[in-house]
């Protein structure tokens, strides 16, 4: 992926290649598919699998990927973690701190910043769904990535872990922003005043303003409520129609009686 740097004075985009996602001994094809979907959501496409339990390709991966076929089609299979990351210059093990393994421990955000600052290829490695990475797997990494998480419930599934790291990485690249939906322009006060008077006329006909000595306070509350919502012209037209229709319904009910 070739990324251009922004012009001077703007935040620079990463020139480092995107990281690879390495799933170590994944157990379910469905989870591989969900991880692929999470990757493509945030612009990552290179998936590497280390000794998947049920072999590869796996028929359960495609439906779970929900259209992330480009990721699955390009997935590579390796016998060991060492082979899977042989071309990477920096390796991040996603796990809790392991006993006997002394490594820098980073948050996903800090790891993403390092990935963008690293000249070579980086890899995020994820362990099996049930047990996570083994100590020997973590020993191959340069850093450990741990998510600050609720200590009373620290269970993340594989796709959730992938999407957290992919999202943090995506902050440093130019991904397409969601299209902006233009908002209706706000109505001017004259239009709002007409609606307020419409409410007052119809409410007065129903005897709503009772007792009389509370009328002024009630009107003030009504006006405050209606003027703080930022109504558009379409909103006001619709509300006029609602008030008019309710008035007609009351007249019809009285006639029927």
From TrEMBL:
Matches recorded under InterPro entries: Alpha/beta_knot_MTases, RNA_MeTrfase_TrmJ/LasT, SpoU_MeTrfase, tRNA_m1G_MTases_N
UniProtKB keywords: Methyltransferase, S-adenosyl-L-methionine, Transferase
Similarity comment: family membership: Belongs to the class IV-like SAM-binding methyltransferase superfamily. RNA methyltransferase TrmH family.
tRNA/rRNA methyltransferase SpoU type domain residues: 20-167
Protein name: rRNA methyltransferase
Cellular component aspect of the GO annotation: cytosol
Coiled coil regions, renumbered to chain: none
Annotated Gene3D superfamilies: 1.10.8.590, 3.40.1280.10
GO BP field: tRNA nucleoside ribose methylation
């Amino acid at each position: 992926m070739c990324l251009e740097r922004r012009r001077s004075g703007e935040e620079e985009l990463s020139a480092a290649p995107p990281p690879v996602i390495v799933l170590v001994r994944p157990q379910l094809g469905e989870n591989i598919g969900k991880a692929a979907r999470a990757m493509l959501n945030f612009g990552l496409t290179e998936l590497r699998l280390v000794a998947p339990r049920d072999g590869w390709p796996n028929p359960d991966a495609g439906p779970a990927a929900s259209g992330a076929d480009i990721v699955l089609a390009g997935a590579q299979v390796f016998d060991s973690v060492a082979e899977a990351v042989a071309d990477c210059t920096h390796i991040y093990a996603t796990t809790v701190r392991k006993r006997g393994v002394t490594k820098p421990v980073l948050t996903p955000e800090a790891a993403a910043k390092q990935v963008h600052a690293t000249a070579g290829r980086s890899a995020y490695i994820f362990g099996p769904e049930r047990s996570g990475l083994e100590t020997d797997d973590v020993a191959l990494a340069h850093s450990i990535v741990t998510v600050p998480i609720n200590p009373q419930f620290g269970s993340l599934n594989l796709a959730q872990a992938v999407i957290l790291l992919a999202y943090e990485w995506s902050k440093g690249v130019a991904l397409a922003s969601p299209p902006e939906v233009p908002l209706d322009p706000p109505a001017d006060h004259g239009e709002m005043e007409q609606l307020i008077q419409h409410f007052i006329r119809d409410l007065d006909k129903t005897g709503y303003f009772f007792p009389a000595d509370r009328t002024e306070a009630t009107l003030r509350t009504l006006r405050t409520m209606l003027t703080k919502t930022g109504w558009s012209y379409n909103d006001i037209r619709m509300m006029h129609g609602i008030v008019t229709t309710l008035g007609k319904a009351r007249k019809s009910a009285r006639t029927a009686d």
